[in-house]
């Protein structure tokens, strides 16, 4: 029993650390896609947001500000940069009615190249050290709750709590506000939305920009949680978030479940040697790593006939076609 | 009253040929991408920006035939992935999976290259073919998913890219792993693609027979697309899947074949990249960029095989420029990737540019015509 608890208390923080950025970024994908714009640029936006956020945090690390304030500033910077960067995708796919895959591919290539380029020129290396440990060792009061305390409120990240708050707000926006209804309408039937006086272009811009903010912040969270330095990559995490979104069938609750599932698989892939039960199977780590992608393919193959993907996704809106 | 001049001739040429307008749009994309690179250099180090820009553009002219040879050497895999993307695109499919097919093909090529030394003189051609076939299999999967289960080929290919990446890492570790340096073994001497007379022609360069594979594939795909019924069917499915089915074409078969061929060509690219001395498959789990650069080349080449060939060689010249950039200035070769990304982004806006160019030309022609007739 105590061994089980040990394993759980070892795994739970790791799973949460994976699950938070995964669900935040795929929620970002959801906002864009529910408004009707495919966003496979999540990876690039994460890199861009993560890069600038980390550079800022590194610059502030000597300033004497409290660590958690620096972390918060880094996260907000990531969100801001992500929004601006996603603006390029919105411009291409909404205003210019371009091919959304091509535009997103460009953003995915641009971000790592630019961040490595700048890092190498300014820091002389493509690695940017974080310069600090941003874990919260224990949350006052809450950490002394039995069982939950050690699992959720010790050695945690600020981003975890921020992530939970953002997730809740996002669901409220999407399902309980007029904006949310309009976003969903623009992804399903933009012409109908337009006929009711909704500015489809504007709503799609909002959808893509929200997606950029979440992915940019997710980029910073990624680096804070998994790395001690930034190397111009988020290791395919943005595409994993895309898989989470598809597996979650474009719904927040689905995303939460999918993110939990994929995060668990990811943690097992990285730490299975420390889990007594799995040690005996000795399945190579790569098998675990590719599992989320294979599962998504299988889901796509068997669910594509009644997919919950937004109906008007990927089509540039042209008012003249009504 | 005035008589028509050469200006009218040029305007007529562009107005009557949509290809000419598209080529113009490609050139605008290239110029735009290069300007983004120049701008970044100007922001970061104004004093060396123009020298660096010159190096990127004309670096391939340095060191004589060696640089020309290396330019072609760098161009070969990009031409092939570009052809792969372009061929699928003509069938209405976006092959973002070129990188996965390339990785998959590269592994099997190297595997054959390391182990099947009994093949003697046939060793490298067989290894090359193994790469192509493996890439073809990997391309066939999204094709079948698209044809039978209506799965979007973009999403399927993205997932398959990562599956291929992890799979190849796993296979390298379990089959051809060189423990002491933590990477794959290089192919045997007999599996290295020979340089032959190219070595004397482009002395000191790395150019090998891979360039002829690129030429051959370009020619074959050109013939398929423009001279055969099969190619006509592929393009027809690309224009309108439903209409093609109505006309009696087997659109499912065509989609699968198009993706398989595209995968085969990307697989060849992977084989050619790694059947050379001094290049090794790693276990770093990162996607190979060449598959994505192929998208840029395919866009610039207007998805036509010959256009891709030209655009690929242009890319090779940039790559050489990037090499000299690092040698002579404080800039690093990542600038080339930035330029490529900017070119892709501007190409995405190409349709808009084409319309603008067309309208401008038309307006100018109309005012000229009025002068002629009045």
Describe this structure in words.
The complex is a heterodimer of chains A (322) and B (374). Chain A is mostly helical and 322 residues long. Chain A is 70% helix and 4% strand. Chain A has one domain (2-308): ABC transporter involved in vitamin B12 uptake, BtuC, CATH 1.10.3470. In chain A, the strands form two sheets. In chain A, strands 1-4 form a two-stranded antiparallel sheet. In chain A, strands 2-3 form a two-stranded antiparallel ribbon. The radius of gyration of chain A is 20 Å and the shape is globular. Chain A starts with a helix and ends in a 19-residue tail after the last helix. In chain A, 51% of the residues are buried. The model of chain A has no long low-confidence stretch (mean pLDDT 86). Chain B is mainly alpha-helical and 374 residues long. Chain B folds into two domains: 1-45 and 333-374, no CATH class; 68-330, ABC transporter involved in vitamin B12 uptake, BtuC (Orthogonal Bundle), CATH 1.10.3470. Chain B has 16 helices and two strands. A two-stranded antiparallel sheet of chain B has the order 1-2. In chain B, strand 1 (177-178) and strand 2 form a beta hairpin. Chain B is globular. The N and C termini of chain B lie close together (6 Å). Chains A and B meet through helix 4, helix 10 and helix 13 of A and helix 7, helix 13, helix 15 and helix 16 of B.
């Amino acid at each position: 029993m105590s061994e089980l608890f040990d394993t759980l208390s070892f795994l739970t923080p790791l799973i949460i650390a994976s699950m938070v950025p995964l669900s935040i970024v795929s929620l970002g994908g959801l906002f864009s896609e529910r408004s009707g714009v495919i966003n496979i640029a999540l990876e690039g936006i994460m890199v861009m947001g993560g890069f600038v956020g980390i550079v800022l945090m590194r610059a502030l690390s000597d300033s004497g500000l409290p660590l958690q304030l620096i972390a918060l500033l880094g996260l907000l910077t990531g969100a801001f940069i992500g929004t601006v960067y996603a603006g390029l995708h919105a411009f291409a796919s909404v205003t210019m009615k371009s091919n959304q895959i091509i535009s997103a591919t460009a953003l995915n290539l641009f971000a790592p190249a630019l961040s490595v380029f700048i890092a190498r020129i300014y820091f002389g290396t493509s690695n940017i050290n974080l310069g600090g440990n941003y874990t919260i060792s224990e949350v006052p009061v809450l950490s002394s709750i039995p069982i939950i305390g050690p699992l959720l409120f010790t050695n945690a990240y600020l981003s975890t709590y921020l992530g939970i708050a953002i997730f809740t707000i996002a669901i409220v926006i999407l399902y309980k506000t007029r904006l949310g209804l309009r976003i969903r309408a623009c992804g399903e039937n933009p012409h109908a939305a337009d006929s009711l006086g909704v500015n489809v272009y504007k709503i799609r811009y909002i959808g893509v920009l929200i997606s950029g903010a979440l992915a940019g912040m997710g980029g910073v969270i990624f680096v804070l949680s998994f790395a001690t330095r930034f190397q111009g990559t988020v290791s395919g995490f943005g595409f994993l978030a895309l898989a989470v979104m598809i597996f979650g069938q474009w719904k927040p609750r689905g995303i939460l479940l999918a993110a939990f599932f994929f995060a668990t698989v990811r943690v097992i892939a990285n730490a299975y040697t420390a889990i007594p039960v799995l040690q005996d199977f000795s399945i190579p780590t790569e098998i675990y790593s590719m599992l989320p992608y294979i599962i998504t393919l299988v889901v796509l193959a068997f669910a594509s006939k009644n997919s919950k993907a937004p109906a008007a996704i990927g089509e540039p809106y042209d008012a003249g076609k009504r | 009253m005035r008589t028509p001049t050469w200006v009218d001739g040029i305007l007529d040429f562009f107005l009557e040929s949509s290809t000419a307008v598209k080529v113009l749009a490609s050139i605008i994309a290239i110029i735009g991408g290069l300007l983004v690179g120049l701008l970044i250099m100007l922001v970061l180090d104004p004093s060396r920006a123009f020298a660096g820009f010159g190096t990127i553009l004309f670096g391939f002219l340095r060191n004589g035939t060696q640089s020309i040879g290396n330019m072609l050497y760098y161009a070969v895999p990009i031409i092939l992935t570009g052809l792969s993307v372009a061929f699928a695109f003509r069938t209405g499919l976006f092959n973002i999976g070129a990188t996965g097919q390339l990785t998959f093909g590269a592994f099997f090529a190297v595997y054959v290259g390391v182990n099947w030394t009994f093949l003697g003189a046939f060793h490298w051609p067989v290894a090359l073919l193994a790469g192509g076939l493996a890439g073809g299999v990997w391309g066939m999967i999204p094709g079948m998913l698209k044809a039978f289960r209506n799965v979007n080929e973009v999403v399927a290919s993205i997932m398959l890219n990562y599956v291929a990446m992890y799979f190849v890492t796993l296979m390298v570790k379990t089959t051809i792993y060189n423990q002491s340096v933590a990477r794959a073994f290089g192919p045997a001497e007999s599996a290295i693609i020979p340089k032959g007379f190219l070595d004397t022609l482009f002395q000191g360069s790395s150019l090998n027979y891979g360039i002829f594979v690129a030429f051959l594939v370009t020619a074959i795909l050109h013939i398929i697309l423009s001279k055969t019924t099969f190619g006509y069917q592929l393009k027809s499915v690309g224009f309108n899947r439903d209409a093609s089915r109505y006309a009696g074409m087997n659109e499912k078969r065509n989609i699968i074949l198009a993706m398989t061929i595209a995968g085969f060509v990307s697989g060849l690219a992977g084989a050619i990249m790694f059947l050379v001395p001094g290049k090794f498959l790693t276990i770093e789990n990162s996607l190979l960029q060449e598959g994505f650069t192929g998208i840029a080349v395919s866009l610039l080449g207007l998805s036509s095989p010959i256009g891709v060939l030209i655009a690929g060689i242009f890319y090779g010249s940039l790559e050489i420029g990037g090499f000299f950039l690092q040698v002579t200035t404080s800039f690093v070769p990542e600038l080339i990737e930035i330029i490529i990304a900017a070119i892709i982004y501007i190409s995405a806006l190409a349709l808009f540019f084409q319309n603008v160019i067309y309208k401008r030309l038309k307006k100018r022609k109309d005012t000229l015509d009025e002068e002629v007739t009045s």
